[in-house]
Amino acid sequence: MTTMTTTPGHVLDDELIERCGARAAGYDRDNTFFTEDFEELRTTGYLTMAVPTEMGGLGFTLADVCREERRLARLAPATALATNMHVYWTGIAADLYRAGDSSLVWLLEEAVAGEVFAAGHGEAGNDLPVLMAVAQAEPVDGGYSFTGHKIFGSLSPVWTRLGLHGIDTSDPANPKIVHAFMPRDTSGYTIMETWDTLGMRPTRSDDTLLEGAFIPDRYIARVVPAGFAGADLFVLGIFAWAECTFASIYTAIAERALELAVATAGKRSSVALGGRSMKYHPEIQHEIADMALLLEGSVPHVERTASDWSNGVDHGGLWPMKLVSTKYHAVESAKRVVDLAMDVSGGSGMFKSQELERLYRDVRCGGFHPANNALVHELVGKTMVGVLGEEPRW
Q1: pTM of the predicted structure, to 2 decimals
Q2: Could you tell me which CATH class the domain 233-385 is placed in?
């Protein structure tokens, strides 16, 4: 009988994570969806870990979810990233429920019933994600009709509810952003198999073409003003759950890269060091120290932000800045850590057979998740000088 190794507060046992890690290279190489991982994770309750206990979930807070996703992402980052696109919707709905807002209780109930939620917010030309939209949301009898081209649509092979948004310009003086969840059996959309990417390949985040897809009122989550004025608790919750979970996943990649670098340094021998391993080389020690120092800064940053959100710390108008800076700091630190790990590898990291080569490609994807570099600096800069939310934007 297999022994299950778990830690209190965790939903995944170590053996399951190891199995996901063993399959990661194959999924990446073949550019295939992580089907076996997904089915195993579904059976554990991982997909409902953020659902309140009274509704059939595990009641994990954002901080709890970040810790669990970080464990999985250490060996299977693409699996952790893609499933996160479902988990964070349940986390947002759970936070609203705990705050006395029952508007998304239906989402929690559907998640427990087995529905799979995904994120469909990406759009070419939209440099203010979630807060603005390129896709159109036309009000019609009983709901909205959506038209547009969504990119980076996570979990394309398995989602049953696609979270998306569009702009309603029926009143040009007061444009609205409409947030909705599209059932898979909706007519008027096409999934376009475009996902052939540098990294995070198993996520299969294909494009979704909306051609007048009708979404009924029951699946309309919010209708809010366009821009920063529409950042209610639901919208802010999207940023909180996305930024902190993204940050945790990319931090895990950095932690794994450091492990691999230390192991490699111990295996490489040096003629100049009389045959001793490269771990005795002062510059190798220096690079590994730099890696550790970066993680000493980024790990507590991510943990503190997730903890503050989970515990209801009132940062007021500083929350947007704090959320995007957390993800930015984690991703930029992770990219630097992986770069240093490649240096320490002595060239072995270039080979496709090496895990570090895959991590090098996966970590590059962190900057493409919102908020990107430009938006982070805009949000932080405007917050610091006290003009965040003022119109016009520039």
Answers
A1: 0.95
A2: mainly alpha
